[in-house]
Amino acid sequence: SQTIHQWPATLVQPVGSPLSLECTVEGTSNPNLYWYRQAAGRGLQLLFYSVGIGQISSEVPQNLSASRPQDRQFILSSKKLLLSDSGFYLCAWRASGGAINNEQFFGPGTRLTVL
Amino acid sequence: EDKVVQSPLSLVVHEGDTVTLNCSYEVTNFRSLLWYKQEKKAPTFLFMLTSSGIEKKSGRLSSILDKKELFSILNITATQTGDSAIYLCAVAVTNSGYALNFGKGTSLLVTP
Fold first, then answer.
1. How far apart are CA B53 and CA B51, in angstroms?
2. I need a labelling partner for B16 at 20 to 30 A (CA). Which of A71, A75, A95, B45 fits?
3. How many other C-beta atoms can be found within 10 angstroms of the C-beta atom of residue B12?
4. How near does any CA of chain A get to the CA of B12, in Å?
5. Mean of all residue pLDDT scores within chain B
């Protein structure tokens, strides 16, 4: 069966500091991977998606970046955090082969507070 | 711009009541509509709907999609306190790698 891991679970960082959040998926190959953010009072917002190694698409211009160095690894980064980067960051995966209506499954999330 | 709107935004009911949550959407390149339940942490998958008029059912929860009128409903019968959560509706589109466009959610509180 497939599992998805995210770490860290919680993070408190000062404004201007760097960020690295990691997501890994087990039990599947060549998944589609996604980063979403849920900010207070707002819905889940897509930040990045990836359909393969090294392929990253950004949906919202911001000071965040993403990378996919391995098939089942997805990293969210920032060089300098802003207060507005606070939120609940969720990684999700979707099977890319077979039926094209595959569900998306979410990792446990990272709660980031920028002070 | 793709849009997913859920109503009501919040709801308080008594145990045993039946509730209906609504989700309407305006998107290009529609592929499927998904419902998730979110408690304290990450959303957990409930249903995926792709065809109009076919009800999906799991225990006391059921959902149906109307692709002509562009909406879906999620029904919960005989509610329990454990149903208290935020219910999220999301639409997958064929561009953006089938990424999901989410509504803001309906916060359901079931009181004993």
1. 7
2. B45
3. 11
4. 19
5. 94
Within 8 A by CB and 6+ apart from A84, the residues are A39, A114
Q: Which strand (E) or helix (H) includes residue A55?
A: strand A55-58
Sheet with A19-26, side-by-side order of all strands:
A3-7, A19-26, A73-78, A64-70
CB A88 within 8 A of CB A72: no
Prior bond to A8 cis, omega within 30? yes
- Which residue in A has a C-alpha nearest to residue B34's C-alpha? A103
The DSSP element (H or E) to which A13 belongs, if any, is strand A10-13
User: Which residues of B fall within a CB distance of 8 Å from A94?
Assistant: 98
Beta carbons of B19 and B73 less than 8 angstroms apart:
no
Instruction: List the end-to-end C-alpha distance of chain A, in Å, as a whole number.
Output: 38
Cβ atoms of residues B108 and B21 within 8 Å: yes
Q: Report chain A residues touching chain B, CB-CB < 8 A.
A: 32, 34, 36, 42-46, 49-51, 57, 59, 90, 92, 94, 100-109
Q: How many other C-beta atoms are found inside a 10 Å radius of the C-beta of residue A26?
A: 11
pLDDT tens digits along A11-60 = 999 999 999 999 999 998 899 999 999 988 778 999 999 999 999 998 87
Give phi and psi for A18, each to the nearest 5.
-80, 170
Please name the helix (run of DSSP H) or strand (run of DSSP E) that holds residue A71, with its range, or none. none
Amino acid in the structure at residue A115:
L
